[in-house]
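job 3f2a | input accepted
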Amino acid sequence: MTSTQQGLTPRQARRLRMGIAAGAMVAMAVLLVVQLGDGSSLRSLGLYGAAFVVSGSVIEMSRRGRTRLGMAVLVAGFVLLLGTDWWLRTF
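job 3f2a | predicted structure (91 res):
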């Protein structure tokens, strides 16, 4: 009995990463609504807007086949945005 481990096909990988980016976009939308409900500042609106741009860019990169680069951009972008949000809240 031989076991061959099959990974995702390129098409499946693109769709998975597009789904992850879309999920991140939905999560940012929910957080934005919560922040705006608490009387948040324009700073938060700008940061969440940047998160939408990052998510949209990742979806487009994944659609064009640049899935690994897209995931790297998604992770780095969200770490940077969340870190910036935390840092700006301290002032």
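job 3f2a | The radius of gyration is 16 Å.
job 3f2a | closed
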